[in-house]
Amino acid sequence: MGDLRMTKLSLLNRRQALAGFGAAGFMASSAHAAAPVHAEDFGVIPAFPDDQTRAMQAALDAAAAQGAALILPSGSIFVRDLQLPGQLTIEGVPGATQLASWNGGRIAQAGNISNLVLRNIVFDARNATALEGDALLEITGALAVTIERCSFTNSPATGLRIAESGVTVSDCDFARHGDAAIHATDNHNLLVTGNRISDCGNAGIRVWRSEPGADGSIVTGNRIAKIDWRGGGNGQNGNGINVFRADEVILSDNHIADCAFSAIRLNTTNNIQVSGNLCLRSGEVAIFSEFDFSGSVIANNIVDTAAAGISMTNLDSGGQIAVCTGNIVRNITPLSVVNPDTRPYGIAAEAEAAITGNTVQNVPGIAIAAGNGPFLRNVLIASNVIQASNIGIAVSVADGAGAVHIANNIISDVRDHAVVGMAWSDIVEPDLVTNAGRFANVTVDSVTVGRSPRS
Q: Which UniProt keywords are given for this protein, alphabetically ordered (predicted)?
């Protein structure tokens, strides 16, 4: 026992000594930190209308070699395809330092590096008609990269492209990009927070993977607006946030407005949380969990003005397991300009789904829909408040449709029917509350149907 105690004491003393040495080393390192390197000392001349790539690259390499920060001057610096080293902080003058594309070249890329910080830099393509490379800045195979208080503007392609990397993008501005503001593929520990994105041709933020798998990206607190669909299609473009094949992603507290298709679109995802987002004026389905998804939690969002509200469908492609709770969905439009096949509805689900505690108002169609033809399995519609729709709740009673339970909903001011049974697009039972016993897949309990008092 005594020998064991001595061993523990020896280990403890050794750890304390090592900690002391580490602290002393840190103090010595801090005391002798390299002085910042100034890009102007390497011949970088702000506002000089010529290619300064060689001078900028020399400044970058020297700062990295010295372990010093690189300070950029105020003004425009024309460059193309800078190679950003790791172990480096590059900092400009807030709102005044601009790295501008020379003759339509990619401004910079960072590959297989770590510990890079970019701060207070404007990346500007200067409205080039074409861009060599897919983005103004490309980061590949990098770790511990931080991009903060930067701007990305006027690219005919994408502002920032990130692949197979761990990156934090915070408090940045993205505007006027021909494709997307941020395109992220096969990443890990990606954090996109507090950014402002507007006027993009096809997408705001894309979180994609080349094959389905764990991703873990967090996209939170961003403002996204005016997203077009110049690339066409029926949903792959025109989205504020698009998650494709990426699992374990959190999308929270984003303000998303005026997207040609969806504010948030999930395709082939697993274990996704979509919460606290404000989605305004979506041209198609505002929040869409589609195709081979599994495990979507869509909670406490507000959808106001959209061609359709929230969809958790595509059981025919394997889409299943969803919770839709605490959302406000209102002011659904009669049609979609970008997708005429879209029918107006508030919330729709097909398989292993709980639709509970939502408020749906002003829908010129179906407020809450369960199933389509035989594509219905185990859906709960409970404790929702529905007001001013053509149809309150619609349930598939077609041959092969699975179980649905309707309970404790309040429905008022319906223009046509409160609860109906449907076979595909046809109403085959206009009063499903009274006649639910006709259909083996439906149970109905305590639906309150009324009319709001008018002044």
A: Signal
User: Which residue do the tokens 């010529």 mark?
Assistant: 50
Domain 36-139 architecture: 3 Solenoid (2.160)
Whether the predicted model's global pTM rises above the 0.70 cut: yes
Which residue matches tokens 């969990």?
A: 289
Q: Are strands 143-148 and 167-170 parallel, antiparallel or unpaired?
A: parallel
89 to 42, 52, 81: CA distances (angstroms): 17, 20, 18
Task: Give Cβ neighbours of residue 24 (< 8 Å, ≥ 6 apart).
Answer: none
Domains 36-139 and 140-450 belong to one CATH topology: yes
pLDDT tens series, the chain, 455 aa: 344 333 333 333 433 333 343 433 433 344 446 899 999 999 999 999 999 999 999 999 999 999 999 999 999 999 999 999 999 999 999 999 999 999 999 999 999 999 999 999 999 999 888 888 889 999 999 999 999 999 999 999 999 999 999 999 999 999 999 999 999 999 998 999 999 999 999 999 999 999 999 999 999 999 999 999 999 999 999 999 999 999 999 999 999 999 999 999 999 999 999 999 999 999 999 999 999 999 999 999 999 999 999 999 999 999 999 999 999 999 999 999 999 999 999 999 999 999 999 999 999 999 999 999 999 999 999 999 999 999 999 999 999 999 999 999 999 999 999 999 999 999 999 999 999 999 999 999 988 998 766 53
Q: Where are the alpha helices (DSSP H) in 32-126?
A: 53-66
Q: Tell me the domain boundaries of the chain.
A: 36-139, 140-450
Q: Which residues of 143-176 are buried (b: 16+ CB within 10 A; e: fewer)?
A: bbbebbbbbbbbbbbbbbbbbbbbbbbbebbbbb
Is 267 within 8 Å of 247 (Cβ atoms)? Answer: no
Fold type of domain 140-450 = Pectate Lyase C-like (2.160.20)
User: Which residue from 191, 154, 201, 151 is spatially nearest to 173, judged by alpha carbons?
Assistant: 151
Structure tokens at 175: 């505007």
Q: Are 287 and 279 in contact (CB under 8 A)?
A: yes
What distance lies between CA 28 and its chain's CA centroid?
43
Bridge partners (DSSP) listed for residue 348: 311, 369
